[in-house]
Amino acid sequence: MESADETGIHVVDDIGDPEIREVDAQQRRIQAFSVGLEGAGDRKTIGTVIYKSIYTVILSKKFNLLIPFGPLAIFVQKKTNQNGWVFILGLLGIMPLAERLGYTTEQLAFYSGPTIGGLLNATFGNATELIISIYALRTGRIRVVQLSLLGSLLSNLLFVLGIAFFSGGIVRKEQVFNKATAVVDSGLLLMAVMGLLFPASLHSTGTEVHLGVSELALSRVSSCVLLLAYVASIIFQLKNIKHLEGNQHGEILYSGDQDQDQDQDEEGEAPPEISKWESVIWLGITAAAISILSEYLVDAIEGTSLAWGVPVAFISVILLPIGGNTAAVTTSVMFAMKDKLDVSLGVAIGSSTQISMFIIPFCVVVGWIFGRPVDLNFQLFETATLFMTVLFVAFMMQWLQAILYMKTLPPDTSLLLSKQQELKQWYYSRILKPRNTGRQK
After folding, report:
1. Kind and range of the H or E element at 12?
2. Residue 101, pLDDT score
3. 3-state SS, residue 10
4. 79 and 54, same structural domain?
5. CA 405, CA 378: separation in Å to the nearest integer?
6. H/E element holding 4?
7. In whole angstroms, what is the distance from residue 242 CA to residue 226 CA?
8. Which of 69, 239, 296, 358 has a beta carbon 3.0–4.6 Å from 93's, enabling a disulfide?
9. 138 and 73, same structural domain?
10. Same domain flag for 75 and 56
11. Which whole-number Å values give the CA distances from 384 to 145, 193, 198, in the listed order?
12. β-strand partners of 2
């Protein structure tokens, strides 16, 4: 249908056209399918949408073949009560669930914008460790909570970060990372470790006013401060994300050629693979599955320790963090080999920052609510180990920046520095050293 106005322009009015109405209805149905809804009740189409969603989230990854080990662990616990097998099967089953939890969080972040997406990633980034810790806390296994979180920190800072550097160095001779983000994360890590160091020092030196009470009060106050600092750091990073990304001018990690696969790095961000409501549903399903499986996993720790003849500390520090860090290892290696070292650093150092500044203080506050005496006293040896690890990572990042600074100096400045070093050596060997020798005589 056409109508002409006073200017002679023909206005097309196809509202009454049945073909246009059919196309519009089909577009509305497709839009409804994208959120998993169908007003007309077409079962075949709903089944297709469900199958596509299951295939994308579960069946498309070979790593998800380990998911059946989770129900198998529950079956073994019900029928045989073999704690060793329950722990191994539960650990294998929780690995792909932790990876899928991170995947659904990333998919949901696509629809939430940069601010809400950043908050989602910050909240659910270590949800597996948080779920396991909360259940262990409810059952009174305070030492398991402390050791498992300590193991996650050491695994992220040493193993995940180290294997990312190693795998990236095999593929490329030169890697680039964002200096500003690394400095912020390193500073936050040092601040969190200082919060853990004070209660341990208070307990070890025997200077408490009331034994077991003063360190608990100090831990609760420190936890509240760390939580506020973590929220402030999240707000800072979200508000300055463009500045931090734009400040990346090539912090060189290894020297060599950097012309390989530049086209792959310049590709745009991939679109989301599932819809918003599918992401919400799968996020709830994976979180519920992890919470159910974590109960059997934590309950089997003591029995596994007795059956294998190994201490609970070894299982909590070494084996238990594997369930939550397997996805971090694969992600760090994958992005490091693609010359996206910022992502690898964000996975390793950012995850450690979240554990030390959010999950550990949050467990202290939750224990306070539950009436559990959870404190930040990780014993002297564990605290010293963590402190040395964080210092090593912080100094390593600063050392890499110093190497970059020396390499980017102008030629005349580098020559001036080298001549200055030669002058110092000459002054020491010709003037200062003979003068000191004469005084000794």
Report:
1. strand 10-12
2. 87
3. strand
4. no
5. 38
6. strand 2-4
7. 25
8. 69
9. yes
10. no
11. 18, 10, 11
12. 12
Residues 126 and 336: their CA atoms lie apart, in Å, by 20
Evaluate if pTM is beyond 0.70.
yes
Return phi, psi of residue 93, to 5°.
-75, -30
Contact 324, 155 (CB under 8 A): no
pLDDT over threshold 90, residue 123: no
3-state secondary structure of 337: helix
Query: Is it the case that residue 289 has pLDDT exceeding 80?
Result: yes
Residue 125 reports pLDDT greater than 90 = no
Burial of 22 (0-12, 13-18, 19+ CB in 10 A): exposed
Mean pLDDT of all residues in 76-89: 90
Tokens describing residue 33: 């399918």
**pLDDT band, very low/low/confident/very high, at 25 (cuts 50, 70, 90):** low
Taking the CA atoms of residue 26, residue 27, residue 32 and residue 34 in that order, the dihedral angle to the nearest 10 degrees is 120
Strands (E), 157-300: 176-177, 251-252
Would you state the pLDDT for residue 12? 42
Is the residue at 431 inside a domain?
Answer: no
pLDDT tens digit sequence for 382-428: 888 888 888 888 887 776 555 554 445 454 444 444 545 555 555 55
**What is the percent of the chain with per-residue pLDDT over 70, rounded to a whole number?**
68
User: Are residue 326 and residue 212 in the same domain, yes or no?
Assistant: yes
329 closest CA partner among 193, 174, 157, 151? 157
- Is residue 308 a part of any domain in this protein? yes
DSSP state of 55: I
Q: Do 135 and 152 share a domain, yes or no?
A: yes
User: Range of 351's domain?
Assistant: 61-259+274-409
CA gap 157, 391 in Å, rounded = 11
Determine how many CB atoms are found less than 10 A away from the CB of residue 81.
11
Query: Does one domain contain both 189 and 56?
Result: no
Mean pLDDT of 340-367: 87
| Same domain? 346 vs 383 | yes
CA distance 355 to 357: 6
Confidence class of residue 86 from pLDDT cuts 50, 70 and 90?
A: very high
Has residue 428 been placed in a domain?
no
Residues 53 and 105 occupy one common structural domain: no
In a domain, residue 9? The reply is no
pLDDT at 254: 39
Give the chain's domain count: 2
The mean predicted confidence, pLDDT, of the chain is 75
Torsion of CA 261, 267, 269, 274, to 10 degrees: -90
Q: Using the 3D structure, point to which of 28, 45, 60 is the last residue of a domain.
A: 60
